[in-house]
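=== RUN LOG ===
request id: a7f3
mode: sequence -> structure
chains: 1
length: 714
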Amino acid sequence: MQNFTVADLVQTTVATFAFALFLLPSGYLLGMASNALCMRGRSGAEKILFSFAFSIAATPILAVLLTRAFSYKVTITIFLLLAAVAVAVVWRQLPSQGRWISGIRRSTWILLVMLAAWFLVVQASLADLQVGHRLYVSYVAFDHSVRVPFVEAAARSGVPPLNPFYGLGKIPVLRYYYYWYVVCALPMRLFGLSAKVCLDASVFWSGLGLASTIPLFLKYVLDEREHLRAKSVIGIALLGVTGLDLLPYAAIVISSRAWFADMEWWDPNQVTSWMGSLLWVPHHVASLTACMSGLLVLSAIDEESSLRQRAWAAALSALAFASAAGLSVYVTFTFAVFVTLWALGVLAHRQFRTVATYAASGAFSLALSWPFVADLLSKHVDGGIRLEGNGDRFAFFALREASDIVDFLSDLGIHNSWLQHLATLPVLLLMYALEFGFFALILVLELRQWRNGRKLEGKRRMPWAMFAVCMALMSVLKSSATNVNDLGIRGMLVGQFVLLIFSAPIVYAVFFQGSTAVPAGLGGRWVRCSLFCTLAVGVAGTAFQLVALRAYAPLADAGILGRCERFLGSPGFGERTYWMRKGFSVLDRVTPTMAFVQYNPVRDEALIAHLYSTRQAVMGDSSCGSAFGGDIAACRKAFPRFDPVFNAPDSRNLKLDEFCEEFHIAVLVATDADPVWRDRKSWVWMRPSLLSENPSMRAIACGGALTTVVRQRR
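=== RESULT ===
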């Protein structure tokens, strides 16, 4: 019997190493060529950190533009050549083996242990868990069921990717930030790996890039030179700390006796934990890394810098910002508002050369991003039909929600919006205190040091300005492009990063520095106790979140949780998921790459199909995924034709081949959760299934593709 858990673990390991070919050489070579941050004269450890961080910043835009202009074959060839050049350069600079091994410091060994632990967390959190003939996905698959098809589409159709959920007429361009999926497609195309394992492995590298920016920011922005290695280790370790979410989550569970799959869901406008962001949305974290890498390079420029230095800074930061935009428009929007205001402040100080560098960076990044911007703005397909607005707005003014308080005030008869907003403000502060937890206390301690005479000068003003802009924007702006406030959730990463880098020196001073050397404002037993307690709750919250995301599916399938989240499917979903993954793996072998495979678009099992089907769907869900590109009106017109095929008892009257010919479908897929499955005279049972000995899934070849598919199967 095939073991999918072992297959995931092995392939994800291969994919993790494969990413090194694409997410190391570009940053290293750009750092050495430009000598940004005087990288040529830095230690080997610092060069590695820069390579990790800046490869995340440079590779996405380079991969997208190269593939768009040429092909994946050309792109992969160029990156392999870059890898060969990087290896040659490093080899020439390496000392003898003995000196190299003996020169590794204790902090480096600690970081290597943390690196191995992070790899194990990724593997344990994301691999499918197989128990006999039952298969359980991590609850993170709720989001990955959209992202895996995007990676598959990027690998299948090139750049720009085509919408994998919309196959009515001409397939539209993916109107979404897709750069991370193109990066994931590189090892997939080179080694023949699956989209799922490449996306899983990318989570590891996204975390690696984020961790690498922490020591660089501590050194070059906060100017932390003493005990930098210890503070860097602390800063990276603090990625495992979240807020006080565990407390309100526990209160809700006890009072309602309902288990949420993710601890963060107690607040609809969550401040997501670092582990949560990395596992659910690695592309948003990669965008943050790209923004911070570009800012690091720009921050090293002043009025005395040479023209060569300013030109390199503008070019490198432009690459980083262009990548960031294609990785996450929400993170980049928040960062762009800050950097624009910061540039205006620099202009007010009459630093014209520095402002010119900022302007050149912005102009170049816009030029690099122009094709992507055109993709985002393309809302039409087939004859210029435009996607009608669904009320979706990228950003608009609205106070960050506290819906329970608004409902409570409405029940009291207070309906005036201004009064409701005023009443919401103190609640909002309480929500922030709970969401940030330990990091909220760090903010208080930083402000306390100001009061005790610490001066805010030099580059230290920059993170404070970034935090202030982020908090202001995230408190009064929101988005409705999806059913959640993505701008308020993902844009908050910018502010979270600032508090993260503020935390490392404070934790070091309070817990690891002698009591006589503790800076003013950080002394006192209450500081140590408060930090320890919030740290403990924050670590416990992260640990609980990791366990809950992994354990939710098997516990729900066993009936322990009572009512479970619908995404997992109908009762008995564990066994059905196993047979669906097995069935779609067979379809991969017997159908052409460009074949259209259609499953029931309206049942929850469709999300599981998204995870494992590698073929284009005509209707991926009830709206054909038209939010990502396509004509919603055409989808609504076609939906009444598709719905009865899977969900109506009279589907036995379906003219199968005519239906498939009309919509260019090669294979129709049904599962035992579909109503049509129970009708033994329906199309499900009219013809032999392409899947042998599969009790939960049948795949029927139909239309003009019937002869081709059957011939390929033989």
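=== NOTES ===
The first helix runs from residue 4 to 19.
Confidence is low (pLDDT under 50) at residues 380-391, 709-714.
=== END ===
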